[in-house]
What does this fold into?
Amino acid sequence: MSSEEWKLEPDVNTAAKMFRTHMLRDADQKPTLVLTLDMHSTEEDRERAMISFYKQTNDWTRPFEVRLKGDPAIGDGVRKHFFSFCLRKIQSGLHLDLDNIGGKTLLFIGEADHLVPSTSLPVLHGDLFRVAGRIIGHSFLNEGPLLTGMGKFLFPLLANKDAGEDAVLQIKDCPDTDVTDMVCLLESQTVLTTEQIEQVNNLALSWDLPTFTEDNRRLLSTQILHHGMITERIIWPEPDSDENDDIEDYCSAAAYLRQYISSASSSQLRELVEFWTGWTVLPDELHVSVDKDLMFPVASTCFMTLKIPAKCRSYAEFFQNISAAVSSTECGFGRV
It folds into this structure.
């Protein structure tokens, strides 16, 4: 493939893959780039390590390995965990108080899907946008999560196009036609009837999402799509025992997970996917296994498998256990 061939590809996703392939064409012949992150250090120290690493001038197309000091996890899942950590810091802000105002340091400010770069002098003078750009590019090369939530008007500027051109956001196909129809309805410019609004609200309330307003219809469509796409990608296991007690435990555990997903908020689902896979990029398949020896859910991120305990006396107990497990992505690597 020539260096310019990807520019002629009309499909943006295919063009991105072609560009990534071109950039990494000689990667196997290069020495591995290694980063060690101390999981026993403070959140601020891990942020300093991240910033220091990306302030360096490196060949970012080299094979990349992340090692977690104080955590036995190894493999591709560790790299996913690291990029999720970095992108979360870019989107949500640093715990480092560079502005000396007693709060987070934000690289981007504004409402969701309308974020704009901060004009904070410490951010500008600290060269943090260069750091952010390297993180975004490095994550892309390693097929990690991408930066989302930016204001639309920024895309033409980033792509060096005329400011009058608007970027068109594509919605991934969802196998659930009911969800797809609802998303298409919300994405349309038509005025919804009372009956249509009631249908949207019934679905939204069943998933603990906000009800419909003209101001939030696009955000709501994205949230509904997110919910629908997760449930349709799960590969549920069959019980591996004919014992009635084992089958009952399996069915209860699977039902509790379904209930958790169906009632979770958008942020809870995002955290669940990150715990399950190592980042918030949805794979084609999400696998589930039921283990009678577990007390808390654990994730095998390399195999996209969520292992849930077989014996929970109630949904309340299951909810408490999975909430504790999912929250562990902040301080560890998918284990409690």
Remarks:
- Residues 162-173 have pLDDT under 50 and may be disordered.
- The two ends are 46 Å apart (CA to CA).
- The chain is about 45% helix and 10% strand.
